[in-house]
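== Folding the chain ==

***
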Amino acid sequence: MDTMLRHHGRYESYVRQAAADPPMRTAVVHPCSTEALRSAVELREQGLLDPLLVGPEHKIRATADAAGLSLAGIDIEAAEHSHAAAARAVELATTGRVAALMKGSLHSDELLSAVVATSSGLKTARRMSHVYVMDIPAYDKLLIVTDAAINIQPDLEQKRDICQNAIDLMHLLGIETPLVAVLAAVETVSSKMPATLDAAALTVMAARGQIRGAVVDGPLAFDNAISMEAAHAKSIASPVAGQADILLVPDLEAGNMLAKQLIYFADADAAGLVLGARVPIILTSRADPAKVRTASVALARLIAAKRMEPGAPS
């Protein structure tokens, strides 16, 4: 099939599923830019979000007035500045007043610092990690790239958590046994390339039950992970090669560059979430189109709904 004839649309079923449920009460943290505030208002109009705007009320209202946005019916939780807004939003999530957090116009690390602070009640035993859930026209299914935004140089144990977070999300998306490709520059194990050693270890860890619910294989280079033809050309025998659902990258720099190349060169949409905390955290960029923001919220809604089911882990 000609890849130029393929279209986006793989988020649509999840958006419909999320829209069928009541709007998710979400703390929108420091929404003091036109983009952040408009996004909260539009998501509310779509019935996906019940926003609680956390930040300096005068700035929020001034931004709304300048942009011609109505805040009628939207609550504001006053906080003096972005640091205070992040801390207050975490408190609201810890006490159950909101089911998710959404980044406004503050820096991602400012919000995440509040989430992982000693006083935060949002940390779990699992390492937090970021996922890009990508809809790529040239690929025949959704593809997760992780971690491209939080863990700079994760060690083996942290990569195990990063991997498990992504697998658990895939289960929520209806993929019973996702295929995880642990990426490196080559497909063979070399003591000179630490990423290949970690990839081999993660493969064995999955075989021994230390990573659950997926088929994990590596090291695999990017081409062999997503192209069956490339895998066949190199005679790679792998249950994952050519059909990966999850790409586990060696470090943040590799993941960030890979994700942005897919966005700008392959016309990919990339919904961004932070996993591993007690509530989902929606990370959006000013450059994200509306459909990506909508998809990010829809995916977070599915996670929050799962957490509210009887017997779900706290």
User: Anything to note?
Assistant: The mean pLDDT is 92. Residues 66 and 213 are 49 Å apart (CA to CA). The radius of gyration is 20 Å. The domain at 1-123+288-308 is CATH 3.40.50.10950 (Rossmann fold).
